Amino acid sequence: MRNLELTEIRQIFLRHRKWLESEGTQGMKAELEPFHLYGPPLTGFDFSQATMAGCQLPVADLRYALMVGTDLEGAVLSGIEGYQIGLTGANLSRANLQGAFLVEGIALGTRFAGADLREAMLTRCDLRRADFSGALLRETDLSESRACEAIFQGADLSDASLTECDLRHARLDEAVLRRASLVRANLTGASLRGADLRDASLGGATLEGCDLRGAALEGAVYERRALLTAVLDPVFRERLKAGTKNC
Prior knowledge:
The chain is low in regular secondary structure. The chain contains 3 helices and 2 strands; from the N terminus they run βαβαα.
């Protein structure tokens, strides 16, 4: 893997910006082989539509950067500062984003499948229709984010915070949400079939039409009235109606 200098990456993306602005008639599209550059200051850079799969930019300053449609599959972006970063349509499958700071980022339809987002900060982000299938999101903070129709199928969200998160019609089938906070989350129409919600907090959550069939709810904190608006296994529903403990 090549070690890239900051001056080189700046030159590459100056040419790339010309390519973007001229719609391909000037400059040159950035199509980079895997490279390593530790902690570069790249605030506000436009990486849109660039090919950067496998690149390593740990602890980079990427505040306000644009990575719209950028190929970052398998990239190492651990610990990056990405306040208000634009990631719409980017490919971050299998990327390492552990401890990344992505507060108020925009990631519409972004692919995070299999990515490592442990302990990352994704508060107040726009994650609508993003794909987190099989991703690691342990202790990740997604509070107040919009994640309507997002896919978290098979993701590990143990100890994660989804407080006041908008998860309407999201898919969380088979997701692990042990000890997760879903306090005041909107789960209207979401699917959590077979999800592990043991010891999770669901106080104040909106659960109307939420599919919880097969979900594990032992030790979970919830409001019985709200839970009865969800789609439940028949036996569980009858026990819940009867007020049976440990149902």
